[in-house]
């Protein structure tokens, strides 16, 4: 059973996850990093495939005697349609969405969930159960009622449910015959200005039209269009439009594998994702979203004291993301702990400097942008470059965020090289010849050091950490633990040519050590929590891209098709996949995974001019 068979709705202000019976089991309000008022996903069984829900933390429209369901997105939208049917010939349709449209020249995106329910056939009986919880499951709301609404009240938050269903039936969770359509609008404590059924239908029409127009604006590959459109819409939903931030996932503490306590809060913005997100947004042609994200990155650059960066920030540039455990929630399938915050913000991760400069470089070369890069931004980026020069050969936690050990990681060094390399290119674009020479000299020096100290001739491969003295950092059995999937990005970052024998040797070493079936582990050495048990989804997309680059495109296409088959029923991917069972694990939906899908599809697709 794949319990991450969840559909995502959202409007770039908040998100919600629905199981296959349209039960809302996760939603943080009013922001995606906020208090999960619906949190049953992390309080025992998630309720999918007929499992019982916990006593609170969900929002359900139950069809009595439900015998099955079908669920889909309305084509090219973020609107979810679920059909429930019982064993007596009755069926209902539930339409779920977060309102999103243009209003007076601005985006209208309230923290509001709209649910439209109608009978399709027979005489279905339904029961509406709305059971929010506050403060990560610890506080039950006070409930008050009006003539057409119910208020769920805590000390610092009020939710209002406005509906044309009988209020008494909702409050008492009394079953009733669905003989007329029902509209439910849950959001801020504000009265509606129009009849509720009219409001629901109008918001549906406007929201559906918005997403269809968004899909229409995408630059798509000829092949795999449906998969790319779904990934692009998901990436958009995971954007916090108020600041431009793109969150890594909408959940916290979905474990990377069963019972491992590899449970992390991913509702933040990792700067290392920036380059790949910008790459995906650029290839899709979604310039406004890309520019907003660049603006978020630029604000981080502007606030970096003396050019020092931390690896992860909050969606409104919060710098302190102190990690704690939420005692009121048992965890996904009871697999706690549930963590709030992420201690990675305090780590040293030296790849961050290259990631930010790589992403920011777009602003100096893309003439579509309303806020192009200029001298002020370049000077600020140079401060980051100086940090890269100073730190490229220093130990750090690395991109895998090791919590108890540090090494001089090859990937971090390569990203520091990329910082200097792109600064040299930006300087030439700005006609700053002396600065271009300065940064090119630093880039060449870092590159030479990496080639000398990260190459292991015994393995015929680059390795994950530098040689120190006579041997390599953290030597282990036959060098297996020295190989890590980030080495696949050495070509992607233009550090080394794809056909260079050293890169070919590295790809071969990765295949021999990290590949399990059609998927790649990020590494196979023991870390702070033992040995990894699942494949890291983005790593397989990196491998697919590397295969295409070295001329093994047919293999790459086959693997890509296999990865598409591991998406859930609505086309989404999480952070990790169990290679043996295909089950999704890790935080969900994972932005990095969806970005990997987009970038690989763009590289592998047959070009339009050859399509027909």
Structure description:
A hairpin with a 5-residue loop joins strand 3 (24-29) and strand 4 (35-38). The two termini are 40 Å apart. The strands form twelve sheets. The chain has an eight-stranded antiparallel sheet, with helices on one face. The chain has a four-stranded antiparallel sheet with strand order 1-2-3-4, with no helix packed on it. 32% of the residues lie in helices and 20% in strands.
The largest sheet is: 8 strands, antiparallel
* Helical stretch tally: 15
Helix content: 25-40%
Q: What are the low-pLDDT stretches, counting only 5+ consecutive residues below 50?
A: 46-50, 474-480
Beta-sheet strand percentage? 15-25%
Secondary structural class: alpha+beta
Order of strands side by side in the largest beta sheet? 7-8-9-12-18-16-15-14
């Amino acid at each position: 059973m794949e319990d991450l068979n969840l559909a995502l709705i959202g409007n770039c202000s908040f998100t919600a996850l629905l199981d296959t019976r349209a039960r809302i089991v996760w939603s943080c309000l009013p922001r995606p990093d906020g208090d999960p008022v619906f949190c049953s996903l992390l309080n025992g069984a998630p309720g999918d495939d007929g499992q019982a829900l916990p006593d609170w933390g969900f929002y359900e429209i139950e069809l009595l005697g439900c015998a099955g369901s079908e669920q889909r997105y309305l084509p090219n939208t973020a609107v979810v349609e679920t059909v429930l049917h019982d064993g007596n010939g009755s069926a209902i349709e539930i339409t779920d969405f977060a309102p999103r449209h243009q209003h007076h020249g601005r985006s209208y995106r309230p923290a509001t969930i709209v649910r439209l329910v109608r009978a399709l056939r027979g005489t279905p009986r339904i029961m509406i159960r709305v059971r929010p919880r506050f403060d990560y499951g610890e506080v039950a709301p006070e409930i008050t009622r009006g003539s057409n609404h119910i208020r769920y009240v805590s000390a610092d938050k009020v939710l209002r449910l406005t509906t044309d269903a009988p209020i008494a039936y909702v409050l008492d969770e009394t079953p009733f015959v669905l003989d007329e359509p029902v509209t439910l609008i849950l959001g801020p404590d504000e009265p509606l200005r129009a009849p509720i059924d009219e409001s629901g239908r109008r918001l549906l029409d406007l929201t559906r039209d918005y997403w269809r127009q968004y899909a229409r604006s995408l630059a798509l590959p000829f092949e795999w269009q449906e998969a790319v459109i779904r990934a692009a819409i998901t990436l958009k939903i995971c954007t916090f439009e108020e600041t431009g931030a793109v969150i890594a996932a909408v959940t916290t503490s979905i474990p990377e594998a069963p019972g491992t306590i590899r449970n992390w809060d991913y509702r933040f913005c990792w700067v290392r994702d920036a380059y790949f997100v910008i790459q995906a947004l650029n290839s899709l042609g979604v310039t406004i979203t890309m520019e907003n994200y660049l603006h978020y990155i630029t604000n981080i650059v502007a606030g970096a004291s003396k050019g020092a960066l931390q690896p992860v920030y909050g969606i409104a540039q919060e710098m302190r993301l102190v990690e704690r455990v939420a005692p009121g929630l048992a965890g996904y399938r009871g697999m706690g702990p549930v963590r709030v915050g992420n201690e990675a913000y305090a780590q040293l991760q030296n790849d961050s400097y290259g990631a930010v400069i790589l992403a920011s470089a777009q602003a100096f070369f893309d003439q579509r942008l309303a806020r192009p890069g200029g001298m002020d931004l370049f000077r600020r980026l140079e401060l980051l470059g100086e940090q890269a020069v100073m730190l490229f050969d220093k130990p750090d936690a690395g991109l895998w965020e090791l919590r108890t050990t540090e090494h001089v990681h090859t990937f971090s060094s390569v990203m520091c090289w990329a910082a200097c390399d792109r600064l040299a290119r930006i300087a030439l674009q700005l006609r700053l010849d002396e600065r271009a020479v300065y940064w090119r000299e630093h880039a060449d020096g870092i590159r030479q050091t990496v080639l000398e100290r990260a190459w292991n001739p015994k393995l015929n491969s680059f390795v994950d950490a530098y040689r120190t003295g006579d041997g390599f950092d953290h030597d282990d059995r036959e060098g297996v633990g020295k190989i890590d999937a980030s080495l696949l990005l050495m070509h992607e970052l233009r550090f080394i040519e794809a056909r260079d024998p050293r890169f070919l040797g590295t790809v071969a070493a990765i295949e021999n050590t990290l590949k399990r079936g059609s998927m790649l582990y990020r590494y196979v050495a023991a870390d702070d929590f033992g040995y990894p048990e699942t494949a890291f989804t983005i790593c397989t997309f990196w491998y697919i891209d590397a295969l295409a680059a070295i001329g093994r495109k047919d293999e790459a296409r086959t693997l890509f098709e296999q990865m598409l088959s591991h998406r859930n029923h609505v086309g989404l991917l999480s952070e990790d996949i169990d290679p043996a069972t295909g089950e999704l694990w890790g935080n969900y939906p994972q932005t990095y995974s969806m970005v990997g899908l987009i970038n690989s599809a763009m590289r592998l697709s047959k070009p339009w001019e050859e399509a027909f």
